[in-house]
Amino acid sequence: MPKDNATKGPEVQNRESRFSTLVHGTDLSLAVVILVVCGILYYLTTRFEKVPELMSQNIPPEWFPRLLIWVIVILTCIIPFEHLFHKKGKAHLDENRSARIKPISIYSAILLCCIVLLMPWVGTAVSLVLVCALLPLLWGERRMKVIVPFAVVFPAMVTLLFTKVLGVYFEPGILSKVF
């Protein structure tokens, strides 16, 4: 039969108090959900088809998704302890989280989803340029002397790094018809 806090001994209450001080309950729940999703996604990477050595381009198809999943897992393990890094602690985090999600976040997610859906047709490089050009505009940046170099230089550097250094194939999309 479970006991309520008033009937629990002082050592049990002390242990629970230390646990709640160390771990933020809401964040722990969120972290568990994210870890379950990461586990499912990792399992899905085990079901990728094997690529012949000639076509593997030095990196097997499951490598990049698994790398991303492990980064997410590592960052997720920090979430329940985030309040320890803030001076004001849990109360400050909970107070800030009570605010509604701003519409710009939803608009950004919609824009990124649209660009991802267009990626097979426009290609990876053009998609990178679109993201680097349209997100700053959506967020209110109006200085073209900042946006244009960012939208050209950053995608070019990412494309060179992945295609030339890492040997990763980028979907050419419409660029295959141009070049």
Tell me the number of helical segments per DSSP (H or I, 4 or more residues long). Answer: 8
Number of E strands: 0
Low-confidence stretches: none
Total count of domains: 2
Percentage of residues in DSSP E strands: under 5%
Report the mean per-residue pLDDT as an integer.
81
Q: Which helices and strands occur, and which strands form pairs?
A:
Elements: H1 10-22, H2 25-45, H3 63-76, H4 89-97, H5 103-122, H6 124-138, H7 144-165, H8 175-178
Please explain how this structure is put together.
The mean pLDDT is 81. Helix 2 runs antiparallel to helix 3 and helix 6 runs antiparallel to helix 7. The protein is an all-alpha fold. It has 2 domains: 88 residues, no CATH class; 76 residues, no CATH class. The chain is built from 8 helices and no strands. It is 66% helix and 0% strand.
Q: Key features?
A:
8 helices, 179 residues, mainly alpha
Short description:
By secondary structure, the chain is mainly alpha-helical.
